[in-house]
Amino acid sequence: MRGFAAGAALATALLGGAALAQPGKGDPDWPCGQIYNPDLVLAHVWKGPDPAKLGGQWAVDAEVAPLVPKLASTVLPLERALAEIDAFAQRLPEEERARRLTLLVVGLHEFLDAERKKTIEGLYKFGRAQRKLAQEIRERNDRLLELRAQNATSPEAQELEETLQWDLKIFQDRRSTVNTMCAQPDMIEKRLFALAKHIEAKLGVGQGG
User: Fold this and answer.
1) Own/partner pairs, 14-22, CB within 8 angstroms, 24+ separation
2) Would you list the DSSP string of 11-47?
3) Which 8-state DSSP code applies to residue 187?
4) Highest-confidence range of 50-64, 164-178, 185-199, by mean pLDDT?
5) Which spans in 37-77 are helix H?
6) Per-residue model confidence as pLDDT tens digits over 68-106
7) Helix 2-15 vs helix 94-150: angle between axes, to the nearest 10 degrees?
8) CB-hemisphere CA count at 13 Å for 72?
9) Which of 177, 195, 159, 174 is nearest to 48 (CA)?
10) pLDDT grade, residue 17 (50/70/90)?
11) Domain residue spans in the chain?
12) DSSP readout, the chain?
């Protein structure tokens, strides 16, 4: 009975609402407190030349194409990424600087936006799984209470209690990671912002140049 009492108390605490990660309003599968924003908009981070007016495709540029995933990866510290941009800009002929640095920004935007979408898809998958598990815990807890009221030593009740306690552990372990997971889209957006603003500075955007 001691194990049952502890399990029931834990279930009550978890399922009372306060311990459950609260999804965004109107979307029960979104597990984060942050407002869901599906897209990175280039205009929100870039005030430099209009890419549509400069022409060219970043993916076919022999230098820009391999540089984009390198700069986008968080494996490369931001300070080193900025230094890579400096080195690239220094190699460019003056007449090519605006176009090719803008291509670099376009590439970074497309690459990081795709990465962010994958992260958001993973968060939705996590949210759906957590919500499904929470519902299963509720149902098992209710059934366990019924069984215990009928027969404290029921084999079915004992088996269900073990299952419930395991489910609760999984639920809690997942909950402990949600804040880190939910921070990832913002981290991607901040990296794009930092890279784009550094490239703007190389072009003298906002400096009267």
Assistant:
1) 14/134, 14/137, 14/168, 14/171, 14/172, 15/134, 15/137, 15/138, 15/141, 19/175, 20/134, 21/127, 21/130, 21/175, 21/178
2) HHHHHTSTTSPPPPTT-TT---SSPP-----GGGT--
3) H
4) 185-199
5) 51-54, 64-72
6) 999 999 999 999 999 999 999 999 999 999 999 999 999
7) 140
8) 21
9) 195
10) very low
11) 42-202
12) -HHHHHHHHHHHHHHTSTTSPPPPTT-TT---SSPP-----GGGT--SS-HHHH---GGG-TTHHHHHHHHH-TTS-HHHHHHHHHHHHHHS-HHHHHHHHHHHHHHHHHHHHHHHHHHHHHHHHHHHHHHHHHHHHHHHHHHHHHHHHH-TT-HHHHHHHHHHHHHHHHHHHHHTTHHHHHHHHHHHHHHHHHHHHHHHHHTTTTTT-
Look at the block and give the residue holding tokens 């880190």: 180
